[in-house]
Amino acid sequence: MKHPASLIEAIEQVAPSLRKAERRVADLVLRDIEGMTRISIKAFAAQAEVSEPTVMRFTRRLGCDGFSDFKIRLAQDFAVGRMYIEAERKVQSGDARTTAQRVYQSGVDALATTFSGLDEMLLNTAAATVAQANRIVCLGVGGSSAIMAQEMENRLFRFGLAVSSSADAYKQQMLAAIAEKGDAFLIFSVTGKPQSLVDAAEIATARGASVIAVTLPDSPLAGRSTLLLPLVVPGDEVHFNFPNRTRYGQLLVIDCLSAIVGALKQPASARRLHRIRTSLLALHGHTEAQPIGD
């Protein structure tokens, strides 16, 4: 059986349709979710006044392998749910100025933290690797990291570099499989754990390509990269309505990299940017500080 997204919600949904004995099991779980994660099956069955096989049937009905698996998943679900419930209580209701101030400060903190952790030598080495690459592949999955891979492509193509991006796990494997020496992979991940990215990095390095990871140090992805640009932005505030501020740090790294690459590709990069600007005049006419295709 496929695991539901939320075990607690699944119990709430299935409870009304259960027989009397299993309904007592469900009710007892929902009354004390935290306590349920620390109890033995024998003690729990006694409290619910049912047999142990009844408890096992209930857990398997919810797609669990057994009572231990049920408790582990319940504990994980409860921890995540409590994190967002507590965050929700801290959010002030609909005050635009307060919200804007918190978003602004969150971004400032993330930028400051990322900037203080930038290593000049590593940044220059990464930029030189990208500038000299025959082909550049930008990878990311999930939320911000997938968008960052696209943004890196958007920054680099205008210098005339052969660059592509992908957020698709299958395509990432295929791109890594056709990697060659002289290629560069730029991989973005907040946690450094997504398996498709870790696998792609391992395959690409085995093929002789350079893998530059913008991710958490000591993560699986960091361990598979040939060059690590460490990204450590504390996520000590979790709010259901606030984006993860790590993306501000990712953007800083992207803009620094692309700016250095553009300088390294001079004078060709300037000529290409000039041609782009000229071609855009037909769309918007002459302007003074118009971004190059942004």
Pattern of helices and strands: HHHHHHHHEHEHEHEHEHH
In helices, the fraction of residues equals 55-70%
Number of helices: 14
CATH fold label of the largest domain: Rossmann fold
CATH class of the largest domain: Alpha Beta
Largest sheet descriptor: 5 strands, parallel
Brief summary of the model shown:
The protein is α/β, with parallel strands linked by helices and 294 residues long. It has helices at 7-14, 20-31, 33-36, 41-48, 52-61, 67-90, 96-117, 120-132, 144-156, 169-177, 195-206, 220-224, 246-264, 268-284; strands at residues 135-139, 163-166, 183-188, 210-215, 227-230. It has two domains: 7-90, Arc Repressor Mutant, subunit A (Orthogonal Bundle); 99-284, Glucose-6-phosphate isomerase like protein, domain 1 (Rossmann fold, 3-Layer(aba) Sandwich), CATH 3.40.50.
Structure notes:
With 294 residues, the chain is of the alpha/beta class. The chain folds into 2 domains: 84 residues, Orthogonal Bundle (Arc Repressor Mutant, subunit A); 186 residues, Glucose-6-phosphate isomerase like protein, domain 1 (Rossmann fold). It contains 14 helices and 5 strands. A 5-stranded parallel beta sheet has the order 2-1-3-4-5, with helices on both faces. Helix 2 crosses helix 5, helix 7 packs across helix 13 and helix 8 crosses helix 13.
